[in-house]
Amino acid sequence: MTRPTRKQLTIIALGIAFVGWRASGMVQKYFPAATIAESPSVDKPDETVTAVGACADPTPEPISEAVVEAQRAIEARSWGRDPFDPAPFMEKPQAVTTNADTASEKPAPPAPTVKFNGVSRKGARWLAAVDGSIVGVGDVLQGKYRVAAITNNSLTLVSDGWMFHYDLGEKVAQVRPWTVNP
To answer: Which of 37, 50, 125, 133 is most open to solvent, judged by the fewest CB atoms within 10 Å of its CB?
Structure first.
């Protein structure tokens, strides 16, 4: 055998040994059950284990009424559970108004009917998909409602001193007096 051929065969043999060593490591890492099943003389655990304490009682704990009511509320939503909602069972805080505030204000106008589908960001500018078109802050919808703010999950419209705040997934807007000059 010539010297170059012997050198090539040595390199090939070392390469095969290295690949085999790495393959066995991968099998042990990704398929540990196969390597454990093949290992010789694995001691079997004692099969006469008895349950003690709280584990011995097979009756489940009763489910509270609040959990059942929260599950029903989630099932009633047309779009199901919101995976990004940090607290799905918490109630949203309601705005507190006094009689003096409500007496001096005019009644809230009805919220505009818009289909708020989603939000996106292009650079530093937030965009919203509303009624089949893309709008940004400052754009006017339905000839009357100006887009005041867009966040990652909400849209705020203003018109005639009123603010209409839409959360993503909600069909009804929160209507409040607009305190900043539009």
So the answer is: 50
